[in-house]
Amino acid sequence: MKAHLPYFFALLTLAACKGNSGEKTLFTELDSTKTSVAFRNDLPANDKLNILEYLYYYNGGGVATGDVNNDGLPDLYFVGNRGKNKLYLNKGDFNFEDVTEKAGVGGFADWQTGVTMADVNGDGWLDLYVCAVSNYKGLEGSNELYINNGDGTFTEKAADCGLDFQGFSTQAAFFDYDHDGDLDCYLLNHAVHTARAYDQVSTRYLRDQSAGDVLYRNEGRKEEREKGGKGLDSPSSPSSLLPHFTNVSEQSGIYGPAMGYGLGLAVADFNNDGWEDIYVGNDFHEDDYLYLNQKNGTFREVMREQMGHISRFSMGNDAADINNDGFPDLITLDMYPADEQVEKASGGEDPYDIYHYKLQYGYYYQFSRNCLQLNLQGRKFSEIGSFAGVAATDWSWSPLLADFDLDGVKDLFITNGIVKRPNDLDYIKFLNTDSVYYQLTMLKTKKFDKRSLEMMPEGKVHNYVFRGTKSLRFEDKSEAWGFTKPTFSNGAAYADLDNDGDLDLVTNDLNAPAGLFRNNARQSAADTTGGRFLRVKLQGSGGNRFGVGAKVVLKTADSMQVQALMPTRGFLSAVEPVLTFGVGKTTRVDSLFVLWNTGEMQVLAGVSTNATLTLKQSDANRKASEFVWIPAEKPIFSDQTATVGLPFNHRENVHFDSNRESLIPFYTSNEGPRLAVGDLNGDGLDDVVATGGKNQATQVLMQQPDGSFAPSRQPAVEADSLLEGVDAALFDADGDKDLDLYLVSGGNEFFGNMPQLNDRLYLNNGRGALSKAPAGSLPPMLDNKSRVRPADFDRDGDLDLFVGGRVVGYAYGQPPRSYLLVNDGRGRFTDQTDVLAPELRRAGMLTDATWADTDRDGDLDLMVVGEWMEPKLFVNEKGRLNNAKLETGNSKLNGLWHAMAAADFDRDGDVDFVLGNLGLNTKLRKSGEQSALRMVVGDFDNSGSTEQIVSYKLGSKWYPMASKDELGKQLPGIINKKFTDYKLFAGKTTEQVFSKGELDKGLKLEVNQFASVFLENKGNNQFATRELPAEAQWSRVMALLPTDADGDGNLDLLVGGNFYPVSPYQGRYDASHGLLLRGDGKGGLTPMTFAQSGFLLEGEVRDLKTARGPKGPLVLVGRNNQPMQVFGRK
After folding, report:
1. pLDDT greater than 70 at residue 445
2. Helix (H, G, I), strand (E, B) or coil at 430
3. What CA–CA distances, in Å, run from 753 to 497, 697, 783, 805, 841?
4. At CA 831, angle to CA 830 and CA 833, rounded to 5?
């Protein structure tokens, strides 16, 4: 959102030196009196125009860098919102000359915003395109195009070219989307708050002439067009003749609605098909757009197909390859603060009801945080901002991904600060006061303007810079690298201003001199990362003289780097049209490829570093299609969902756990379906049982001889459709040599002594027909349960059962009952928990269990895991199960476990375990490796209801996860009396929020491990712990399946996950798209790419099972509220 929460929306949402670390400072801020860059974007508020009148009043202006006079040094152009723009020529050694007046580029519009440099007329000289806001609140003007005359002067020619747009412009990008050899233009515009801006998503297809984005196609020069050609490809075309641009937005599939609050624009070839795609970041409620180029002049919007969620208040964005896999990744900025006090005093996520209200209107899943979208080889994106450590940078504007320390990995720079915070909750509360609301909305008075402006606190924040690493974890180097001063920085750009091989930074700041930061990497990094570089300048042909859109690939024996030339980046700004690579200590690059966007390729071998190359398109003598982004290899799995045809679609009923318990962190009503596999009818084929949601019968699917599956009518099972099945087991309960069916009841919708909580046992007649077991076959079990695990633990020849308790209805956090059921051999089970395993009765909120002989003594032991607990091992001692604490050294294992796999992964003869956890990609991790959670459960206000007070650890202190409003709604007598405004509550620890003794009577639970882990069995209850690879930490792991996928004799591991029903504060856990971890037989598990594995999952995975098929084993994927997926080996 960046400049203003409108009244309507407020009502709706309520010098190189050493730093303290001893590390050499990477950047030195240069004094404007020495550089002669005296530009200031001063913007004092006044009665006629301020943030109350114009929502983007404090969004600031842009900055562009490029060599406008072709002297080999990049120059600077700054945009002033209300004052004159400034052009500074680079004279070398960080000395600049203001040539604005002589050049004639000061600007005419009343309000100007973004700027980009591009050679619009294809004459080899960079032109300037400046965006403006007009026809609003008395602001006049239009977008301006300054054509470079090549003599130090410019001529404004926007109208001549058809680019004199009037409306609410943000920024423009010039690139050749149709690959005809000249530069087209995408114009990003933004809405202002009108009634049309709040509407159903269907209105997205209605175009608004002032706020809607525009795609302009370059039609070439008039003279040449009249001759039947485009003109820009002809060397004889005089440069004085200008191209003309035509609005082709609608026919090209570009949206242009009144609700498109466009603030971020990134152009990149996201799927590496050789054609530039477009990402548009929209503020407020409108979704972001991801347009894939269809190679025929049109685009298809695919954001929902490829992303699990997006930023809610999307600001600036940037696209670059952060993991060096060849595919551009994407970061979008938002306004989530790292400071605890600011967070609790500011509006962030919507309340649950408003969140779902927007979903019903058709908007997508949006959360207020920076989103780092990792590109999965052009197939999908995984949002890993929290894992990477870049989700929270406060009121952020411009992200720039570039290798600032020259180590070969992209770093991240982010500008920050807002003059007035319009999302301050006390300010919003003031607007909601009846008298104020009436006068503002009905009388349209301005009498409260001054007080409103005074109530908004200042939001001056330091700029952030993060060091990128190969682990995809970004290290906050803001202080160490020289960015400690709080600012109001908006637009930003990078360029090698002194031609020394590293990238310097420039910022456009509000009410302060522009920031100019010299990069010292060539000096300070020489003894650490190496500090070597390779710069590439491109000379294109025809109308694209700077090679915009071309890609340069560097390859060495063990690495690859890719950059695409696309100057428009970040926010309102444009970077130098030169590519700078950091190569660490590498002195020679094995291969360099240039892929021109019109299809040509040039290859160079043995390229020396610490050099600047100039590469010409005319020298390219190969086809770009020869370059292979993903090496051709046969994937292990193929998706056979369509051919196998499992006729089951899980249906989850709508149920909001938070309506009963408003403070719970996780729902427990959305944990199906679960699958059971076995031969029910004795035909030698594996059949499948899939549990249904509430009011959906569990389905029995019989495999046919051709490998397809057909539903089998089971009246006894269908009669129990009201009950929610959360697990199933096929086993011989009554000793008659066929498989019977046990269904676990749960889902947290029934509670107390409701009979729907009882589990069900169905006996098989030997031909696959199931009937309800006689009354008394099972004891009463009036609990929400989770898992059933058959095993002959007492070694009497029949199968007994362990049934795990999941949750106590209306009392999340309290330990439910679990059951050890002993079989009498004829299918009659009795509860023997208190006799044989008393510590198992209230073992915790269990989510998974497995029987395994962990101590190799010949009998089966029981391992259980769950939420808010450590794994518990119950060792079998002559039929009694005794809790034996796992010995894991100093490893912390109190987790939010949800899945477990037991197998001998290291082939040493004992059973190892893999445990699936919440993962490391969560906002709840506030303190890195020391992150932890606490939950205190009890009735703290004696109201008769249970509250869950969840706190996260930040540094050495604990802070409540819930906001003042959330706590005050549940505990009004405690919270609202003590904290009458948000400022009093903000920044308070949990101990300060609650008086001494108020939480003492509650049950205390803790989490100190978020990662999914591998437990290597060392014998004697000794286990070595290590985290699974990063790819397994990006989402909540819900299902694990050991299998020898590649047939090498070593066990591999299939991983499925995602979990959506959580508080909006956390946001959906949706970054998993399935994962195959290849085992090495020694306990090592290495992630495979989707191209290698073929195992690409979608949605919320709840179970993974194998079944025999006529052409080999199948992997069945049970998904919540979706059909099953099926994979077979190729």
Report:
1. no
2. helix
3. 74, 22, 8, 15, 18
4. 145
The C-alpha R_g of the chain, in whole angstroms, comes to 31
pLDDT for 122-162, tens place per residue? 999 999 999 999 999 999 999 999 999 999 999 999 999 99
Q: Which residues pair with 744 in a beta bridge?
A: 727
How far is CA 739 from its chain centroid? 44
Three-state secondary structure readout of 703-759: ECCCCCEEEECCHHHHCCCCCCEEEEEEECCCCCCCCEEEEEECCCCCCCCCHHHCC
Cβ pair 635, 648 in contact under 8 A: no
The residue among 109, 46, 54, 659 whose CA lies nearest residue 352 is 659
**pTM for this prediction:** 0.96
What's the CA gap between 574 and 173, in Å, rounded? Answer: 9
| Cα–Cα distance measured from residue 891 to residue 758, given in angstroms and rounded to the nearest whole number | 38
Cα distances (Å, whole numbers) of residue 226 to 182, 232, 241, 243, 1100: 17, 13, 12, 12, 57
Which of these, 465, 486, 310, 303, lies nearest to 398 by C-alpha position? 465
DSSP per position, 1045-1076 = TTSSSS-EEEEEE-B--B-TTT--B-----EE
Distance CA 863, CA 912 (A): 11
Q: Is the pLDDT confidence value at 1026 over 70?
A: yes
Residue 742 φ then ψ, to 5°: -115, 130
Sheet bearing 411-416, strands edge to edge: 396-402, 411-416, 464-467, 475-476
Per DSSP, which regions of 119-254 are E strands?
A: 127-132, 144-148, 154-156, 169-175, 184-189, 214-221, 243-247
Which of 85, 89, 171 lies closest to 398 in space, CA to CA?
A: 171
Partners of 76 in the β-ladder = 65, 88
SS3 assignment, position 902? strand
941 conformational bin, left if phi > 0, alpha if psi -120 to 50, beta if neither: alpha
pLDDT surpassing 60 at residue 14 = no
Strands 486-487 vs 380-383: parallel, antiparallel or unpaired: unpaired
Task: Provide CB contacts within 8 A for 50, sequence distance 6+.
Answer: 57, 449, 453
Nearest to 173 by CA among 319, 325, 392: 319
Rounded distance, CA 432 to CA 442, Å?
13
Both structure tokens of 316: 């600036």
Contacts of 733 (CB under 8 A, 6+ apart): 740, 742, 761, 763, 773, 799, 823, 827
Q: How many CB atoms lie within 10 A of CB 1021?
A: 16
Q: What mean pLDDT is reported for the chain?
A: 94
Residue 160, exposed/middle/buried by CB under 10 A (0-12, 13-18, 19+)? middle
Q: What three-state secondary structure class fits 246?
A: strand
Phi-psi region of 53 (alpha: psi -120 to 50; beta: other; left: phi over 0): alpha
Q: Is 967 helix (H, G, I), strand (E, B) or coil?
A: helix
